[in-house]
Amino acid sequence: MSKKILVVDNHPMVLKLIANLLAKDGHEVRTAPDGLSALDILKSYAPDLIFVDLVMPNISGEKLCRIIRNMPHLQGVFLVILSAIAAEEELDFVALGADACIAKGSMSNLARHVARVLDLASLERIQEPSREILGLEEVATREITKELLSSRKHFEIILSNMSEGILEFAPNMKIIFANPAAVALVGIPEETLLGSDFTDIFADHSLEIVAALLNGPAADRKISAEAPVLLNGRQVSLQFLPVAGEVGASTIVIIHDVTKRKQAEEKISEQNRFLNKLIESLPHPFFVVGVKGYKVMLANSSAHRYRAGLTDCPGHIDLAEPCKAPPPYAPFERVLQDKSSFLMEYVEQGRDGKETTHEIHAHPIFDKKGKVTQIIEYRLDITERKKAEQALRDSKDALQKALDNLQVAQQVAIRQEKLASIGTLASGVAHEILNPLNIIGTLAQIMQLEKIPASMRENLDEMLSQIKRATKITNNLRSFSHQHAFEVSLVDVHTLFDKTAALLEHDLKLDNVRVERHYAQDLPRIEADGDQLAQVFINLVSNARDAMAASGDKRIIVETRPKDDGVEICFSDTGFGIGQDEIGKIFDPFFTTKDPGRGTGLGLWIVYSIIENHCGTIRVESEKGKGARFVIFLPTHLPGRRDCDPVDERQDHPSGEHG
Amino acid sequence: MKKKTKKIKILVVDDEYAFCRSLKIFLEKIGFEALIATNGEHALDIVSEEKPAIMTLDIRMPGLNGYDILQKVKRLHPDLFIIVITAIDVPKMDEMLEHSGAHALLHKPIDLQKLSDTLYGFIGHLL
């Protein structure tokens, strides 16, 4: 019974022998020198029996068997493996889908075993093939073959476990080898992949690129990771390695899946674009500097513009030429030293001479070891902010000052109003009292013109003296009336005191009172009402004189000195002093230690009121028997007074009587 | 004093009648003829009718006050010698009065000796 038989072996002798053998028996025989050719034939030819050599170029026997077994029209074919290395390799031919296996030995033995296989094949396909390898006992083991097989096994393991895809295609572009990674990458079953065209695994534009590449010179054959092609939806780079073989130069292709890398790169460049946009959007200069040589690695256009407009850059790199300036204008050095962010304010002189204030921020960037590798720096022009802050401070100060003035003015006004109302009252009362006193006095004086007894004359004298006393009190009270304006001028305290003392000189001489002056040099002139101040001096000197009536040593010591924003005037005397029980009351109105008829009790009250009215202070230090010391402080400027006329000091002293 | 020599007329102007009266007594004692007016209108009437040579004048009065009287009287009788007698004591009052045409200023309570000194001084001018 004639059978259709395909013999595949790369050894022409074997091929010829078996073909002749089978043809002699009347079978229809076709031959193929390798797996690839066999697959070609099998596309249009369905043999009953196939002999496959195990070790062949262009698709090995093992692969070919597996492919055949996956071909639908070859399901029933009887597959026989011819193995030259059966003795050295423990071959499980059943697992390869073969029905029998013949160990290649001598030609005569081979012919015998082929005949035996033909017998077996006549029984259709065997359900449970014998695992016996025919002719195995006739071949001897060869050590060299064993070693080669062992090393092949190593390479197979390596190949099958590589993450890179490895493909091999024959000069006619047919794929003859694919490792598992390549199979996975291409996404086509190995059986289908083997024998198909290499270019067919690509599509569209990638196909064009690869095809063009393969048509070009062999030296240029490369698809780099930078410009990958698409393979089954993945981005891959391709490396083409020509292999010189027996049948012709095949080509090994190493396929790298660079999809993830490309995605990561894309992500990074997207982030970079984002960051660039970000720093470019900053209106102020922003740049990143490497610590080695202070090279600028990144700078926005504002940074470039900024540099162009400056004459100097203390502590700062020039964008073209890094410079190192000494501290304290070296934020970079500081950042490197402290390993922390740094902030400073810097006033810069522009080319146009305009001063601008900048806030310089520097932040270190660390590597994994914590070393500073880069420094971010940006500058904010805070000139306007500074100006605004200063303006705010100034206006706040001005406001505070105005408020202070207002408060003082208010206090003064309240005090003056209080004193004025007392004055108004005093003035009114004085006028009302003076009129009856005037009438009584006139009548008493008229009566004195008459011829009257001496006793009555004495009584009238006493009456007139009492009228004078009442008048004095009334006038004292009234002299404090502020119906007349508070007349401020610049007063030289020394001149004023000298003139006032001159008026009292006669009285003082009579009482043997000496006035000692300890005047400070350069005592500032003060804003004051000269008349009122003269009143203060008169009252204090009169008081001192009265207090020293019983003293042996009669001295009034006047000292002046500048103090704070004003002058201090001290009046000391060598009088009987003031007791502790009285010291708190001496400025009260109507308080007096003098004999009845001598004092009105208004002198020190008037002094106190006038000093108060000048926003000054007065205090007294004394001990009974040890003299008294009045310390007056008067400010140079009367606060809250806008009507101060800085004219010459008034020199006239309030004159009581007119002729 | 029998001989009716022409005495110098003095007009005393003060709203306090008691003062006018006592001053009149004094003035007559020292040989003047004293007239009294206790308000401004009355004083102006007397000035125009009696033509006194001298006038004492209070400043603070109800109705026409001393300054008003001074100004009006100066027009009626520019040669009138005027002594202001007042209880008011304010600075620069003398200047103010001089400006208004007063010739002397005396303070209350009046010192009669000073008054007569002032009057005799004026009479010296008149003679």
What can you tell me about this protein's structure?
The complex is a heterodimer of chains A (659) and B (127). Chain A has 659 residues and is α+β, with helices and mostly antiparallel strands. Chain A has 5 domains: 4-145, Response regulator (Rossmann fold); 162-262, Beta-Lactamase (2-Layer Sandwich); 282-381, 2-Layer Sandwich (Beta-Lactamase), CATH 3.30.450.20; 387-478, Helix Hairpins, CATH 1.10.287; 485-635, Heat Shock Protein 90. Chain A is built from 17 helices and 24 strands. In chain A, the strands form 5 sheets. Chain A has a 6-stranded parallel sheet with strand order 2-1-3-4-5-6, sandwiched between helices. In chain A, strands 7, 8, 9, 10, 11 and 12 form a 6-stranded antiparallel sheet that branches. With 127 residues, chain B is an alpha/beta fold. Chain B has a single domain (9-120), classed as Response regulator (Rossmann fold, 3-Layer(aba) Sandwich). Chain B is 46% helix and 19% strand. Chain B contains 5 helices and 5 strands. Chain B has helices at 17-29, 40-50, 66-76, 93-100, 112-126, and strands at residues 9-13, 33-37, 54-57, 81-86, 104-107. Chain B has a 5-stranded parallel sheet with strand order 2-1-3-4-5, with helices on both faces. The mean pLDDT of chain B is 87. Classes of the chains: A alpha+beta (659), B alpha/beta (127). The A-B interface holds A 430-431, 434-435, 437-443, 445-446, 449, 467, 471, 475, 478-479, 483-484, 531, 654, 656-659 and B 16, 18-19, 22-23, 25-26, 29, 60, 87-91, 94, 104-105, 107-113.
